[in-house]
Amino acid sequence: MRLDESKRTGAQADSLASKQDTRGESQSLDCQKSAVGQIGSRRTGTETECKNAPGNAQAVFKKLGFSFRRIRTCLRERQVAIEREEKEAALKVLSQLAAANQLDLYFGDEAGFSMQPCLPRAWQLRGEQIRLFPQRDKKLNLFGIFRPDNVAVTYQTKENINSKFLISAIDDFCQYIEKPTVLVLDNAPVHRSKLFQEQLEKWQQMDLYIFFLPRYCPHLNKAETFWRKAKYEWLKPSDYATFSKYERKIKEIFNGIGLQYKVNFKELKDKIYFV
């Protein structure tokens, strides 16, 4: 919804709320407040609060079919349609071959984990608030290789991830290959570097094939889902008490993929409404 459309809808909602007043008294425009809040990502909304009004704008918006939820980023305008369609079709074929047990299909990606919490909400007692002190100078960088049936291999470093680190990690991963294996990666600069590209032929000889996703299509990389689950669900406020505890929890999570930590992609399929 564009901002001008949001304003018009807000005005309509205020008008409807005013008509519902059985006493016919006009409500003051001073009751209207514009609220802009940020929880995880920026949210924008308009709420009307009137103590004596029989309803408020929030109730009217819900009645009109609106819901107040997190805004999603969208890269569709930067995507190349033909490239996306071709890559999606190829990825679908690879998924079918993996389902037929003719090859293994993995998704790889990098992620940073810092002591800057990604916890927008938590159950808290009334009158009390959980407070976490951010420590941005301490972080862990991970390169993860994930299979949709909850198999994971991760490589950790406290330094920035570069092509040399990735090459070393993938070389190690090749030890576990038992059949032709496809590793899906995005188009990050470290994946497109000359040094990284020079390894492709060597990995093919080891039965590992790199499949590059279409540009600006992060939603096709299932590794992203594992990162999101870890940051927003599996990590708890108490895990941020100290960096050593935080580091142990990160290790526990990714060593426990497929055991106590699982992603059900079948359930998520119908919930993904953005690209």
CATH-wise, what's the superfamily of the largest domain? Ribonuclease H-like superfamily/Ribonuclease H
The total count of helices amounts to: 10
The first-level CATH class name of the largest domain: Alpha Beta
* Distance separating the two termini: 16 Å
> Unreliable segments (pLDDT under 50, ≥5 consecutive)?
1-54, 270-275
The ordered H/E elements are: HEEHHEEEHEHHHEHHH
Number of strands: 7
Question: How many domains, in number, for the residues?
Answer: 2
CATH T-level topology of the largest domain: Nucleotidyltransferase, domain 5
Strand content: 15-25%
CATH architecture of the largest domain: 2-Layer Sandwich
For the largest sheet, list the strands in their spatial order. 5-4-3-6-7
Task: Give the helices and strands, then pairings.
Elements: H1 3-19, E1 32-39, E2 41-48, H2 57-63, H3 81-99, E3 104-114, E4 139-147, E5 151-157, H4 163-173, E6 181-185, H5 189-192, H6 194-197, H7 200-205, E7 208-212, H8 223-234, H9 243-255, H10 265-268
Parallel strand pairs: 3-6, 6-7
Antiparallel strand pairs: 1-2, 3-4, 4-5
Structure description:
The protein has 10 helices and 7 strands. It has 275 residues and is α/β, with parallel strands linked by helices. It folds into 2 domains: 55 residues, no CATH class; 194 residues, Nucleotidyltransferase, domain 5 (2-Layer Sandwich). The strands form 2 sheets. It has a 5-stranded mixed β-sheet with strand order 5-4-3-6-7, sandwiched between helices. A two-stranded antiparallel sheet has the order 1-2. Strand 4 and strand 5 form a beta hairpin. The longest helix is centred in the first third of the chain and has 19 residues. The radius of gyration is 24 Å and the shape is globular. The protein starts with a helix and ends in a 7-residue tail after the last helix. The N terminus and C terminus are likely disordered.
